[in-house]
Amino acid sequence: MIVITRIVEAITFDSEDPAFSGEMTMVVTFEDRDGGTEVTILFEQIPPGIRPEDNDAGARSSLEKLAHYVEYENGSSSWAETRN
After folding, report:
1. Helices and strands in the chain, H and E counts
2. Going by C-beta distance under 8 Å and a sequence separation of 6 or more, which residues neighbour residue 31?
3. Domain tally for the chain?
4. What is the pTM of this model?
5. What digits encode the pLDDT tens for the residues 55-75?
């Protein structure tokens, strides 16, 4: 079994406005913690037009949606029915 401890992803923003274009790097690390897994996400080289707090809010929103999806995948409810 291969245990993944780190994922690095390049995210490219394509915009006519140079402040919102460029490549950002997202580094996700996984560490065993007290019977669970601690997930850390680091963003590097965020384009200057994207405020760090907006990037943080977007990442948190995506993680909340993922958590909701995973919870309902294991239950009897359909994620599509409850996401509104």
Report:
1. 2, 3
2. 5, 37, 38, 40
3. 2
4. 0.73
5. 999 999 998 998 888 888 765
